[in-house]
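SAM-dependent methyltransferase
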Amino acid sequence: MNAQQLSHRLTRVAHHVPKGTVVADIGSDHAYLPCHLVLNGVVDKVIAGEVVKGPFESAQKQVQQEGLTAQIDVRLASGLDVILPEDSISTVTIAGMGGPLICSILVQGKKQLVGVERLILQPNVHAKSIRDWAVANNWGIVEEEILKENEKIYEILVLQKVEATVLWTPQQMLMGPELLKEKTAIFQEKWTRESDQWKKIVALMESTAQTKGIIEKKQGLIEKIQLVEEVLQRENS
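Structure:
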């Protein structure tokens, strides 16, 4: 993978970046996504943020090699702290992290989200935590994607600020309001896999001491299994 040839996952993240916006890419790693966006004329300015010195230096090197130092500013800071008011950031991308970590970045950087119009988030796991955050903070999901790359399944969530509180059903919160509309083969594969794994965990719990914590966790898993199987059975009937 390089700036000219992104992975399928990052190519789809790039697809959701509106043309002409000012982007902050958080956890930019080698800055492949920012370089790709500028090289392909999608945007003119990107802030590439990294919290770890090694990836920060790799990003700097990549931007220099591409001759894009005037358009891409690589900064070393934690999460959204890389964003300054004068940057006028309108789009934030965060890809390749767990959902809870992405949420913590959004929570800690709440002030930096003022003026941001679009969040493009690609969690590796636990996308539901992002939906929970979105509901609590008046962000709506305008697009979702589910894709498979190197035998791993990823989701992409595109959020925009809304005025009214968003209300989703438990199934929509868990599986994605937009993804539920299409229920692609990859969607079905993901949730069949998840449901099977939860069933194995529940079976193991049956043979352990039934403490209050175990009972509550088991019940939570059973409820998720039921939500998923309602969708899968409806689709296959």
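The domain at 8-166 is CATH 3.40.50.150 (Rossmann fold).
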